[in-house]
Design brief:
With 112 residues, this protein is of the alpha+beta class. Helices cover 29% and strands 19% of the residues. The protein has a 4-stranded mixed β-sheet. It is globular and about 45 Å long.
């Protein structure tokens, strides 16, 4: 393992920094939730099902026919979620991984 003293947010693939990619992911998830508000019960919450939370972050998610998808977003995105219903606590976590979210989104897209 090589340790390099660098801000990971500024690491780039030559096109986008990690920070830019997280911005894109966050805004695209919010846009999907707004577009699907009448279908998949999107939510925002500051607390997980057990009441725990991550300082400076909140959780968004929705339940597709293929299963849950969720992300933790930085508090600066809260203002874009005005029309997303707020829950006191998130739903019981089904254990999905990042790979599961990608697979569930892909399966849902193909089923539409």
């Amino acid at each position: 393992m090589i340790n390099i003293d660098v801000d990971p947010a500024k690491v780039s693939d030559g096109y986008h920094t990690f920070e830019e990619l997280y911005d894109h992911r966050s805004m695209l998830m919010i846009a999907l939730m707004v577009a699907m508000k009448g279908r998949f019960h999107p939510y925002k919450t500051r607390h997980h099902n057990d009441g725990s939370s991550y300082p400076g972050m909140f959780m968004v998610g929705m339940k597709l026919p293929e299963g849950q998808i969720s992300y933790h977003l930085e508090d600066r995105y809260w203002k874009y979620c005005e029309d997303i219903p707020e829950r006191e606590n998130g739903p019981l976590f089904d254990g999905h991984t990042s790979a599961d979210v990608i697979n569930r989104l892909g399966a849902w897209i193909q089923s539409e």
